[in-house]
Design a protein that fits this description.
Helix 10 (about 195-220) packs across helix 11. The chain contains 11 helices and 8 strands. It has an 8-stranded mixed sheet with strand order 2-1-8-7-3-6-4-5, with helices on both faces. By secondary structure, the chain is of the alpha/beta class. The radius of gyration is 21 Å and the shape is globular. It has a domain at about 25-35 and about 40-50 and about 65-140 and about 210-280: Rossmann fold.
Length: about 290
Amino acid sequence: MKRLIFILIFIITTSIGFAQKPAYLLYNTKGKTTNYSKLLKDAMNADIVLFGELHNNPVCHWLQLELAKDLYSEVADRLILGAEMFESDNAMLINEYIGDKIKTRNFEAEAKLWPNYKTDYKPLIEFARENGLSFIASNIPRRYAAMVNSGGFEALETLSDKAKELIAPLPVEFDPELPQYEKMASMMGGQMGDHVSNNTVKAQAIKDATMAHFILDNFKPGKVFLHFHGSFHSDFFEGIMWYLQQQNKDLKIVTLSSVELDDVDDFPEEKKGAADYILAIPSTMTKTH
């Protein structure tokens, strides 16, 4: 009888084990599992939260909205939202839309929206609109990033003073030896110092610098700024975070990186230290576009 009970318990336990298919796991910077409550608590006490996403991953976008909602429940109108997916020359459009001055159809027709806007970013914009929250268009206009890609930072000096208001102040500080920038150059088959690789990495850096600039330009002590962007822009505490710290080393910044894994229970060594929190999502997860 005891043997039969043991077998039944084993079968039930095993079945439950196989049935558990987590949509994500959260890890800390040391690669140890942690939980959402800890992330939320740290985010509530931060000045700036850098949420690095995978652009086409639905879990990232779901958790972004949930974190925004939960932060709003705790800090109310002290919350500021912002995102890479909106360029600084669309700031007026976003302000007009959130302020109920223009209709949805006009906003969506005139703003430069990503192809996955309606599924992935519209919920964030609508949340800000419903609750009267500021939503900052932080990214450099893509035409100016393209100028850097072809002509380096020097190309930006030819812009008008009005145009320069849409980017990080010039001259832009740049450290080509940051590991993530070196990695980017290597992924393109080159190395820092090559003309093509150098300018392409500079185009990445001007995005990071501009996003950091508009985050700081809109942040005030006592606020919590939740910013959304691709993980590469803040992974390993570089990119946006590096530029933020050049301006203010006393900022309390929490970073989150996202990664897809074949087995979310098997955290890879190379991802340790990627962020304060690492969002691990099964690689089989459906994509939004």
